[in-house]
Design goal:
Elements: H1 13-28, H2 43-56
């Protein structure tokens, strides 16, 4: 029987927690975007903010494309 390879996690558990926190803040309406401070409306933007915060803290997150 051949050994089964397990894929390495791309995002660390810490990164997942940051995204989860950003999403819950968005739902509550307390998540604000960068310099402008406007309220975040889109789900994609909330995820991007969570990943950005995780990167800043040194969590394992793949690099941005482009």
């Amino acid at each position: 029987m051949a050994k089964r390879r397990t894929a390495k996690r791309r995002y660390s558990p810490a990164a997942s927690a940051k995204v989860q926190r950003a999403m819950s803040e968005k739902k509550r309406g307390t998540l604000h975007a960068g310099r402008s401070g406007k309220k975040v409306q889109s789900r994609k933007q909330a995820v991007a903010i969570g990943l950005s915060q995780a990167r800043r803290e040194g969590a394992r997150v793949p690099k941005k494309n482009g």
